[in-house]
Design a protein that fits this description.
With about 260 residues, the protein is an alpha/beta fold. The chain has helices at about 55-60, 80, 90, 105-115, 115-120, 180-185, 205-215, 235, and strands spanning about 1-5, 35-40, 45-50, 70, 100, 130, 140, 140-150, 155-165, 165-170, 190-195, 220-225, 245, 250-255. The protein has a single domain, classed as Metallo-beta-lactamase, Chain A (4-Layer Sandwich). About 20% of the residues lie in helices and about 30% in strands. A hairpin with a 2-residue loop joins strand 9 (about 155-165) and strand 10 (about 165-170). GO terms for molecular function: hydrolase activity. This is MBL fold metallo-hydrolase.
Length: about 260
Amino acid sequence: MKLLVLGCGTSTGVPRIGNDWGECDPNEPKNRRSRVSIIVESAAGARILVDTSTDLRHQLLANNIAAVDAVFWTHDHADHCHGIDDLRPMRFGRAGPLPGFASEDTLRRLKQRFGYVFAGMYGYPTIVQLESLERVKIVSGFSVASCEMPHGQMNSTAFRFEADGKSIGYATDFNTITDEMVALFEGLDILVTDCLRRESHPTHASLAMALEFGERTGARTTVLTHLDKSMDYATLSAEIPDNVLVGYDGMQIDLR
């Protein structure tokens, strides 16, 4: 099983428009962050994409990803779904639409905003067949479990993927650690967690919260993501435990 971090930045990316790097060293390539998205891949080569970030086309090209087997969405904020049109080339040559999955609330809002993706229009075929997470347990050889996380006034969905005897959890965009989240991610091989900045935030995890989350779940390795311009890669790497890694665009971790 393999984790590929397509993007690890906050909603504005790093640098922000205006070439604003904040406290991040512009000479460190790992500080250049596109919007968050990941791929998990099984030993058999099956790939699941989580979120269609605003930068999806660039991310797929940079990592030589031509196809995925399914798509999952955490929620419908723009930085997590507005790259949805870049799924269209993956529909070419397929006998049917890509399988897609989201919570009931996210499903409803995605269909309202991107109806043509899920129903086709003007002779163009349906790109994604969107289904509720309530009806999914196994997808492309992956065991899938999920729960809802508080994200300000709405929820974001956390995912646990298992294949080949290994497990990867993905929890981005949350501001509270619930018992359900800890239970879902107990004993993970890799936990990828929201970590916006050091200071507290009303809708995102701080560094202290992200580290606490990793400890409470007992994850072997914790990867920090959704990082803003205050989180310089080298500075942050020097202050976190050995089993915690600062995520970066293009990061790959192979589980064997």
